Amino acid sequence: MSAAKLARRRVGDIAFKVFCVLVTALALVALAAILWSLLVQGLGGLNPKVFVKETPAPGSPGGLANAIVGSIEMCLLAMVIALTVGILAGTWLAEYGGRSRYGAVVRFLNDVLLSAPSILVGLFIYELLVAPFHGFSGFAGSVALALLAVPVITRTTEDVLLLQPTTLREAGVGLGAPLSYVIRQVLWRSARGGLLTGALLAFARISGETAPLLFTALNNQFFNKPWFDLRQQTANLPVVIFNYALSAYDDWRKLAWAGALLIAATVLAVTVVARIVAQEQRRS
Amino acid sequence: MSETTLPAAAPGRRRSAPRGALIGQLFEGLCFAAATLLLASLGGIIVSLIIGGWPALSKFGVGFLWSSAWNPVTDVYGAAGPIVGTVITAALALILALPVAGGVAFFLTELCPAPLRRPIGTAVELLAGIPSIVYGMWGLFVFAPLFARWIQLPLMSAAKPGSLLEALTTGIPNGSGILPASIILAIMILPFMAATLRELLLTVPAAVRESAYGLGATTAEVVLSVTLPYVRQGAIGAVMLGLGRALGETMAVTFIIGNSHAFPKSLFDSGSTIASTIANEFTEATSPVHTAALISLGLVLFLITFVVLGLARLMLRQQGAKL
Amino acid sequence: MLKTLGAAVGAALGAALIAGAATQAVAAGAMSGAGATFPAPVYAKWAEAYKAQTQTTLNYQPIGSGGGIKQIEANTVDFGASDKPLKPEEQAANGLVMFPTVVGGIVPVMNLPGFKPGQLKLTGAQLADIYRGVIKKWDDPLLARTNPGVKLPNLPITVIHRSDGSGTTFLFTSFLSLQAEHWAKEVGANDSVAWPVGQGGKGNDGVAAFVKQTPGSIGYVEYIYAAQNSMTYALMQDKAGQFIAPTAASFKAAAANAKWTSAPGFYLLLLDQPGANAWPITGATFILMHAKQADAAKAKEVLSFFDWCYKNGDGDADKLFYVPLPANVKALIRKSWSKVVGPDGKPVYK
What we know:
The complex is a heterotrimer of chains A (284), B (323) and C (350). Chain A is mainly alpha-helical and 284 residues long.
């Protein structure tokens, strides 16, 4: 009887392991298939001109330089805003008011915000920052991207903070440090890996977003003047990709795939670098 | 601004008590302000949706929810088609992606040889970094023809007339429709769920897991009865992350779902989702009622999310009561 | 960690304040326009050449014709662009001035194994019946009537249309409404309609892809997509009853016979134009500007740009498969620009 049960448990265990390996393989196959398309199509369009020339008209030589610069500017500003708001809000939910009624409402609405279609976020920012001032701007684009990133960061921040052992907090407070100090110096530090994951997911989420930028930053065929002035319509990779990918011109399609490859490569690079940095810090 | 002075003052080693308390209060206030900002932005979105959608809501009333008419020429709109499409594709995507995401997370935390852990984890996260338009184009130009050839056509020819399989598989055999769109969605939400699940599983204290192993539990038992329940709360959050993305995704779905406003009749029939309808028609809609109807669709999507999340909460609470 | 956070908070607030305050000040700077996707390539080409010559930049962004109309009304751009012309009374109601820039054609394309481009002949009425779902198979006797001697396959017809609202769809459905009473009554013309049958592809490219992947399908795309993808197109019956091929020449013929002189506000659809070899599904694309301009200098810059394009841009337009306007129409347009006035009520141009 007990032997039969043991055998059944072992079979179940093997089935479980096989299942895990198989689905991981499946996920990797999907990734490989998409990456393969991306590489095959994107490498063909990638050359030094992509990084130094402005987006061209069909048939003219050109690159993606203005879109790359614009995307970097907008994503950076968006991440700065989103990390500030998201980590603080997530901390409040985990450490201060999460159990209050108000906290429950905030948490609930944050989850709702997570699934807000990015196009609606774009429309909201359009009404808030574009229409009243009679102009599309890279700044409005950053705010729209930030609004998409915040709920991801808030959610992950709260989750990882809640999973930090209570003993950490008790030890800190027991030593006479104020809670706010313990949160910043102990909890944030020990939850660093999770916070980083949240930030990376948020960055990955916004780096390729087209819909919210269509209504806010729009796009620009040329560099902004001066190039860092986000008050103007600002070039960005996702909208350029969107415009070029479905066009009838081969050189535009090539640039679109090259742009998509650049975004994916950037996300990969940022992820890898951040993980290495996090590990270095953990070691020291 | 006073906020900017706070962090500079904080790391001092010798802090007088009142100053520390002040900083503590300031910090808590700041956190509270951030949470409130979050609340305010969602409130702002909903208010702007209600204002923008009002012309359609007042014209069609609650009937907007179950009418399946959608005619920009006569300016008559109903949300039923896109609502059904949204719920079906999101549910299918979740059903397809959740076991895979779980499997990947378990594999990475329990089974994977250490040197492979990082590369595979990063590879899966990389899926999240691919712009959604690439998923759309890949879906349309690469996935759809393969899907049509190797899955759709064999299924359609295997289906006996009058059988359930036939009812499920009728459609245009070009690899587009509800099921292909759901599969693309599943691939898109997979990395979000897998990455958060893995991160959660890693936070389970080693002592908890090891004591379970020590009691002779198999890997499957440890994962399913010890570590997974341990992170349940967070796991729901991970699922919500995925579901949220699936409900709100526009670009990729638009390419491959076939974009018909009628109710989908089979897995391969054309359908539409709320987000894809907004993406398709918003920029071109010039009639005020059309624009308002599209904005109302956005409001309906929020409503759906409210209901789904509410149900999830309820389920969680009941489960908690039983334990 | 804390220092970084402090810097981050500071940077965020600082940036937010500066940018927020400055957004209100934005006005000057490069010219900007947005709207129809169809002319975007040629506008980009013109903007590039214009910048090389004058150092002045004009940024045009394809957001769709409806978007162009909405954005010029919201005053977020200096000019809007649309494939769907606004009626004179609509222009007046919004204080807008409209003029055409280039002309192009829309082509029915199909996936019929073994068929060569131009082998199938269609009338507007047949096309309408296919899109209404009345003609369901390619060997329908109704289709055989215009295709004597052609072996039509016993294949079901899969109708493919645009899923996104589009000026192309507006022109196509306007043409079907013009040719078939049933269509006009049951479906009508708009940039998106309630399609009786079929499947929607995203953009011209999405339609082309579905058509290529579905044997027995039919769709409609801008000419360049049919040309670049070497798709099987149909010959269409022109006003005189002849079946003609979609070519630059047949679009030009349609544009040449258009009576712009008797079209107030340049409101004109170039569908089913009379004259030999005039492609029946042809349309112009339009620019929209406010008649009363707050910034006279900026408005003058925009009009100078289009003046430059009319003078120097025909070659580029030809190369990208667009049909430039005849010289007399261009003169007429320049004359109409006197309606664009500055705050002082004086015309901004010349």
